[in-house]
Amino acid sequence: MTIQVKTSAGSYPIYLERGCLQRVAELLNLHRKVLVVTDSGVPAAYAETVAARCRQPVVVTIPQGEHSKQMTTFTYLLERLVEEGFTRTDCVVAVGGGVVGDLAGFVASVFMRGIDFYNIPTTVLSQVDSSIGGKTAIDFKGIKNIVGAFYPPKAVLIDPDTLSTLPARQVANGLAEAVKMALTGDSALFSLFETADLSDPTVMEDILRRALLIKKQVVEEDERESGLRKVLNFGHTLAHAVESVYNMDTYYHGECVAIGMVSMCAPDVRRRLLPVLKRLGLPTELIGGADALLEACRHDKKATGETITVVYVHEIGKFNFKQITFGELETLIKEVLAP
Predict the structure, then answer these.
(1) At the topology level of CATH, where does 2-165 sit?
(2) What pLDDT was estimated at residue 301?
């Protein structure tokens, strides 16, 4: 199926289809010079499939992990574009997870004031979340995604078959973001997580489709995150703090979001959420003190003075924005700390 996402500059398609990676040359304009960016954790065959269908491919494989999403890697990719003689008519293709997509998209956004960018996400997390919406960024001075730009891709190609090579922990990591969308906007999707056979490929495809449609609606209504789109930050206030405080290898992003969601929902919602997170193998509490996490939250973009705006789910499928003090946030943080 094709999902069309509208932006202020036009629109772009998301192709969601099993086996569509093999049709990449039909769906994307690769008859030009193409910088294919991937990482060492992505099966090389995926980038090779794309490169084989480009007129003039330049494949760059960066080290796997969040530590690659920084200024040095960003600069290196720009250097490669210059060295290989890329022009405004050429393009960048990301093949991999959110780190690759965020980084490659940001590079495309600034090179010659912007060249075409295509995203081919190969993880659950990037397929349901970061590949749609046009956010690109790198981490800087230890703060996640603080330098970046809104830069919609020309197209997104999602092949669920690429998920077959993922370990179970990575699948759960991505499903955390789909649970987030269900909690804030689709109670039927949440029920699917409670009862469906999540190992069934057709169920996974349905989850991907539902999650993409939720995010499409949100980003179309609020492309620049000035209002409604902030709902996508549900669970992320604490999640980003966890990522800043803990080693990136300790918790994956989706695992941090899972912990963050637990602290930002009503007791009745939490009673249904905890079994779902445990069913997926996601963490629900932290070991450590609240002080460092609270300090990290003060750097959050949603913080203003002594207050911060959070997304709070009071009923499954519904949410509200709440402005709370850092004292109240500390209380919420302590609720997910192991005794």
Answers:
(1) Rossmann fold (3.40.50)
(2) 64
Q: How far is CA 73 from CA 8, 64, 86, 193, in A?
A: 30, 12, 18, 37
Find out whether 129 and 93 touch, Cβ atoms under 8 Å: no
**Helical (H) or strand (E) element with 26:** helix 24-27
What local confidence, expressed as pLDDT, does residue 101 receive?
95
Instruction: Say if residues 281 and 172 touch (Cβ distance below 8 Å).
Output: yes
Q: What is the pLDDT of residue 339?
A: 56
Q: Which of 70, 77, 73, 68 is nearest to 138 (CA)?
A: 70
pLDDT greater than 80 at residue 288: no
Residues in the chain: 339
Written as one letter, the residue type at 105 is G
> Any idea where the domains of the chain sit in the sequence?
2-165, 185-334
pLDDT digits (tens, 9 = 90+) for 20-31: 999 999 999 999
- 201-221 and 187-195 helices cross at what angle (nearest 10)? 160
Classify domain 185-334 at the CATH class level: mainly alpha
Single out the residue of 289, 284, 292 nearest to residue 264, CA to CA.
Answer: 284
Which residues contact residue 333 at a Cβ distance below 8 angstroms, ignoring those fewer than 6 apart?
238, 263, 290, 293, 294
The token pair that represents 178 in the structure block: 């789909």
Q: What digits encode the pLDDT tens for the residues 46-76?
A: 999 999 999 999 999 999 988 899 999 999 9
Q: Tell me the residue ranges of DSSP E strands in 122-235.
A: 135-140, 143-150, 155-158
Nearest to 56 by CA among 14, 94, 27, 86: 86
Tokens describing residue 255: 């695992």
Chain centre distance of CA 109: 18
Mean pLDDT over residues 209-217, rounded? 89
